[in-house]
Write a structure and sequence with these properties.
Shape: globular
Strand content: under 5%
Largest sheet: none
Number of strands: 0
Distance between the termini: 43 Å
Structural class: mainly alpha
Oligomer: single chain
Helix content: over 70%
Length: 535
């Protein structure tokens, strides 16, 4: 690593945030053609396997790589090269063991795991994904090690490689297996193989990178014992792992409950996988806005943390308020737009699955609003962590998760509501989390954020924008009646969205929703502020 110039803290954070945004965007793009290929039923088989994988992944990689990064950073700052090497050599065996256990559990326990999830046809997707657990565990250790030395580029490149392989190979295999006449469960397994191959490719890249940039300089420092380092890694990593694991575990349990409750309704037992897949069609679209908001929340951390370190509470308060305003300006109109034209957008994106997209349309009215709260949850979690209140997001996520599980059990189990209860439960979950988070942010902020002042104008502007989108879409739909159904809907949807963007942009400037200081943490923010005549 000595040949690599250490990146600045803010520069490294920007690289990593940009990479994560690209990866999330590629993931969302992947799911749209995948849904067209395998439909809602195949997507359910994929999600069953991926939710199990995500729990194992979060448990093994959520907090421990951050612990390695922190300890490596301390040793790197002190010039203790032997300590850095000992941290890596100690940690790699821990991750090797966790990855091996996770892979064996998924591979040999695939049948039991599929039965536990109330979806026996998830067997092959679970098996196809099992090797990825081992690869990702080793990847997490290597990424933590390079990030601890201030070098975010290897992590960014490896993540993008992983996403590209998933997008290219996974879609190709899913299409090819269906062409061979194999079942939807095998097609979903083919798509999952793209994920597994992506993790393997990323692992090869990082191994090559570490060997090529290996620091062979001699050092006289005496490293700590392996046992002491292991205790330090676990002490730092376990609390963070618990925080990040909560939502993954809740999602896993919730998927099991939704599928189980649908199968308990005699008239819907055979179509449970299809109904759940239609619900996930909507979730694929809803996950897009948080992908764009994520870099904003990431860029907030170093600026706010630096202000708090200087005990400049006024500056920290201004940064937090700016973060709220930027996220509100991005998230609220996105959520309103998805609520208004989410159904037509699904019909446009899933041309091969028009009936399923039409069935998923009603979910979007609830999920669009939920999208706003998902973005606010990410922001408020980051603010609380920056203020040193890392445990609070754990409890608020658990509270929201319990709300979701209980409501799904009641609503989805009601034959007259069934799958339509899932988006209502999702919205309720995020409302509870954000409501609690906003209270604690207000309580622990030295400079109290003025929520009414922050959110009032974006809400008004978004409501006016939503009305404009609805009116333009309705007018264009009537004007194009008699033409191709798909083409007319697509044109009306795109023109409606364009009209909404124009209306909202004008309102943001006219109502002076943003300030020049809000764009300080955004790349090229000064130029954008000058262009918009912000003060």
């Amino acid at each position: 690593m000595s040949t690599k110039k250490k990146q600045s803290f803010l520069g490294g954070a920007a690289i990593l945030a940009s990479a994560v945004a690209i990866v999330k965007l590629l993931g969302a793009v992947y799911k749209i053609p995948f849904g067209n290929i395998v439909g809602p039923e195949g997507q359910t088989y994929f999600n069953v396997a991926y939710n199990i994988y995500n729990v194992l992944l979060t448990i093994s990689t959520a907090g421990l790589p951050l612990a390695i990064s922190k300890l490596t950073s301390q040793a790197h700052t002190q010039g203790r090269e032997n300590q850095k090497r000992k941290i890596f050599s100690t940690a790699i065996w821990l991750f090797f063991a966790m990855g091996l256990v996770g892979t064996l559990l998924m591979f040999f326990g695939a049948e039991r795991l599929a039965a536990f999830m109330n979806e026996p046809l998830g067997y092959w997707p679970i098996r196809a994904l099992s090797p990825a657990v081992f690869c990702v565990c080793l990847l997490a250790c290597m990424r933590g090690y390079t990030q601890g030395q201030g070098n975010m580029t290897p992590t960014a490149v490896s993540q993008i490689l992983e996403a590209l392989c998933k997008l290219g190979l996974g879609l190709m295999l899913a299409w090819y297996f269906l062409k061979l006449g194999l079942g939807l469960d095998i097609a979903a397994a083919g798509a999952i193989l793209g994920v597994t191959a992506g993790t393997f490719l990323s692992l090869l890249y990082l191994i090559f990178y570490l060997l090529r940039h290996r620091d062979r300089r001699t050092s006289l420092d005496e490293p700590d014992s392996g046992g002491k380092l292991m205790r330090q890694i676990l002490a730092i990593g376990i609390p963070i792992t618990l925080s990040n694991s909560a939502m993954s575990i809740i999602t896993l349990v919730d998927t099991k409950i939704v599928l189980g409750r649908l199968r308990e309704i005699p008239a819907l037992a055979d179509s449970a996988a299809e109904l759940f897949g239609q619900y996930t069609f909507g979730m694929n679209l809803i996950n897009l806005p948080p992908s764009f908001v994520f870099p904003v929340t990431m860029s907030l951390i170093p600026f706010a943390a630096a202000a708090l370190t200087r005990r400049d509470h006024a500056e920290a308060g201004r940064i937090v308020s700016s973060g709220f305003r930027i996220v509100a300006v991005l998230a609220i109109p996105a959520g309103v737009g998805l609520s208004v034209v989410g159904g037509p957008a699904l019909l446009m994106l899933y041309p091969r699955r028009q009936a399923d997209a039409l069935a998923a349309g009603p979910h979007m009215r609830w999920l669009g609003v939920a999208c706003i709260f998902m973005c606010l949850m990410n922001l408020t979690n980051v603010i609380l962590q920056t203020y040193g209140k890392e445990l609070i997001p754990i409890w608020t996520v658990i509270a929201g998760g319990i709300t979701k599980v209980v409501m799904n059990y009641i609503l989805v189990g009601n034959p007259s509501i069934n799958i339509h209860g899932a988006p209502i439960s999702t919205l309720s979950c995020y409302v509870v989390i954000v409501g609690l988070n906003l209270f604690f942010v207000w309580k622990y902020s030295p400079e109290k954020p003025r929520y009414l002042q922050i959110f009032a104008k974006p809400v008004i502007a978004s409501a006016l924008m939503g009305g404009g989108v609805w009116a333009v879409h309705g007018f264009m739909s009537r004007a194009l009646a008699g033409h191709s159904t798909y083409g007319a809907n697509a044109i009306a949807t795109l023109i409606g969205i364009l009209a909404g963007v124009i209306v909202y942009a004008v309102l943001v400037v006219a109502l002076r929703i943003l300030r020049a200081e809000d764009l300080k943490t955004v790349p090229h923010g000064a130029k954008l502020a000058k262009l918009l005549h912000l003060r």
